[in-house]
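Handout, section B. The chain below has 270 residues.
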Amino acid sequence: MTDRITTHAPGRTAPPAQAPTGRAPRCLKVLRAGKHGAARLVCFPHAGGAANAFVPLSAALPDDIEVLAVQYPGRQERRAEPCAEGIGALADEIAGALAERRDRPLHLLGHSMGALTAFETARRLAEHGAAVRLFASAARPPSHDWGERDLDACTDGEIVEELRRLGGVPEPLLRDEETVREVLRLLRSDHRPLRHYDCPADAVLTIPVTVLVGDSDPKNTVGQVRGWADHTSAESSVEVLAGGHFALLERQSGAAPLLVDRIRGDRAPL
């Protein structure tokens, strides 16, 4: 598939979020319980990240979109569980949890490493026809070499400097020893399956793929993310946000209105 590229300016935010309600499997957290008939958006965190990274984004979405966030093992309320050994293992668990939740249109949104996990989850859900669209944020195509460093061979200081370069972790937290220790533990654990992930070039979804990339992302360029078009037989587009590697999670990036437009568009009758 060929793709198109669109640049987005910041837009107005949607109404504030309601308090999270409802119950979900241990790998899923309900950030916004959508009203009856709402579409469902499932958010997959980046390496070292947790479900609560998507709380601000959830708050910027309207109540006709239910928002769930994936909680990987090894962090927060799942801290006692060992971190996943592979992207496939994560996708197996999440797909199993989502397979029975087919009461509304399902959209998957993965950020950085989460884009690969969302892609693999979509592959597993394909037989159920469950997913409607994949949003891949700040991520190169699954069959491409991401050029990730071996964090087990990096010093703590080197990783902290890379975190500063990418943004996403406030500076006060990077100066807190306990917080840094936990972030480094999760980053190293998550990067092992990321570095060993191997996707065949002919792995193809049948749903549209919308790729999101920040215009000042230090890790990914528009040219580097365009290859997602090779992994779907449906429409593919690249949407350029205002911001860096974490533009998806930044209030003024224009991400929330874009997501609303695509999700509502998928629900509209042809």
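Note. The domain at 3-267 is CATH 3.40.50.1820 (Rossmann fold). Compare this with the example in section A.
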